[in-house]
Specification:
The chain is mainly α and 218 residues long. It has two domains: 73 residues, no CATH class; 91 residues, no CATH class. Helices cover 61% and strands 0% of the residues. The protein is built from eleven helices and no strands. Helix 1 packs parallel to helix 4.
């Protein structure tokens, strides 16, 4: 059986067109197939100088198959003839290795900067959630993850608010968690005198002053 033909007729069957958002999934399928055929050494080291004509022909067919699988990104592959060069170029175009990209996104998601505003952090982790979801179904972050990360980010800065929210977090949406943290941020930015004046003159019932803004990232 011609294994290089198999990757064209079976290995690429159902494979979605390559894009930057699905590169990890795309590359994982390609790598699994190449590994199953014991061709990973040719991807890593290239074609050996003493390679037989049969092996060269097979790898040439694999190169054609990879270019076909690259879809619109084939324009980046002009002049490239070996699987090693083709996959290296696609890795470069799509932001580095698949495992490295996913690991970087997950690390950023888990460690937001507490010196940034609540709105900025919420928007950032929501964007990262979308990126992770787009490239890995199994590793996607949930709404629960977003709530936990937000609370952990500000647990030192707004300790009382965070401790209270942890008790009721399961009943709150991410948008509601953000709103409570935003209020804590707003209150912390007011001077003690300003807070006292607002409580005494603007809100005789002592319910506190609340700033309401639309949530653009929830």
């Amino acid at each position: 059986m011609d294994d290089s033909r198999d990757i064209i007729t079976h290995g690429l069957k159902g494979l979605k067109p390559l894009s930057q958002t699905n590169y990890i999934e795309w590359r994982d399928i390609i790598d699994d197939y190449l590994d199953s055929q014991n061709w990973e050494k040719y991807i890593k080291d290239g074609i050996p100088a003493n390679a037989s004509e049969e092996l060269r022909a097979k790898l040439a067919k694999i190169a054609v198959a990879l270019k076909t699988a690259a879809g619109s990104q084939r324009t980046y592959l002009l002049g490239l003839r070996t699987p090693k060069d083709i996959l290296a170029k696609l890795e470069e175009v799509n932001g580095g290795s698949s495992k490295g990209t996913l690991s970087s996104l997950q690390r950023q998601f888990s460690t937001p900067d507490s010196s940034k505003s609540v709105d900025d952090v919420a928007a950032h982790i929501s964007q990262l959630q979308a990126q992770i979801r787009g490239i890995s179904i199994e590793d996607r972050q949930t709404e629960l993850s977003k709530k936990d990360v937000s609370l952990r980010c500000y647990q030192e800065k707004y300790r009382t608010t965070v401790e209270t929210l942890r008790i009721v977090a399961s009943d709150f949406s991410f948008a509601q968690i953000v709103e409570k943290l935003r209020q804590a941020e707003f209150d912390s930015n007011k001077s003690p005198l300003e807070t006292a004046l607002q409580v005494n003159t603007n809100n005789p019932n002592g319910a506190g002053n609340k700033e309401t803004r639309k949530c653009y990232y929830c």
